[in-house]
Write a structure and sequence with these properties.
mainly alpha; MetI-like fold; membrane; ABC-type sugar transport system, permease component; MetI-like_sf; MetI-like
Amino acid sequence: MTHKNQKKVSYAVLVGPAVLIYAALIIFPILACFLLSFTQWTGFGIPEFVGLQNYLTMFKDSIFLHGLRNNFLVVLISIFGQIPIGFILAYILYREMVKGKAFFTAMIFFPITISEVVVALLWQQVFSPSGLYIALMRVLKNDPRYVLRIFESKTYAIVPILFVILWMYTGIYLIIFLANLQKINPAIIEAAIIDGASEGQILLRVILPSMVNIVFTTIIFAITGSLAGFSLIFAMTGGGPAHYTEVIAIYMYLNTFRYYKYGYGSSVSMVIVFLGVGLISLLQIIFRKLEDKYE
């Protein structure tokens, strides 16, 4: 056996088990889910092939469409809320614009160390009729009869949840950005300062170009996490009232495990997969153009 063939065999031996595990845990379940999405099945008996009926029914269902809208709002608040805020806070701490770097880092990151269910129950109490938010608003508005009605609105019921999501997950991006900012050679920034660069110029012309790949990675995290998000919202509202705060992961769960529509639930799962792949593919195209611009 030649040296080249020995290397190929070595690579196969090393990579093979990981590929098999990945196929068993990711590829095969997705393929099985895809095939099941074209059937009607209650979990018992033989699945009945129904073609595209599940998908057609899904996109005619107003509850699903509202859940899809809520999901896109979660994606937007993650990409345009968590990531920019996380980066700005990381930059402020990195440039030591405030004292107590370790303290602020720990406080901002702290929410993510708490269980999603605990966070959900905590904020559920805050927004409850006898909770802190209502009590505070009654004092500020000088109205002892003040009642929070945002959950009665189909359009705005998701807003408190978006706030909780922003509060809980921003710390992840703070840590990611701060860790990568600290890898930048300080001599480069010092040289820019000596050349008369302002803080804004340092940020736009030195820091951001070196962070393009990191931003790309964080957006992928935001998209996948937002589309698969379930525990926090389910524990906080269960998708209610009247499905107003429901996202498609909850919609999938209810149809699959409460109503025993395994074929229909599989079709909803595939929509989540297609959305994730589509958004990430679009993101890759955008960032390739950005990389070409900065090269």
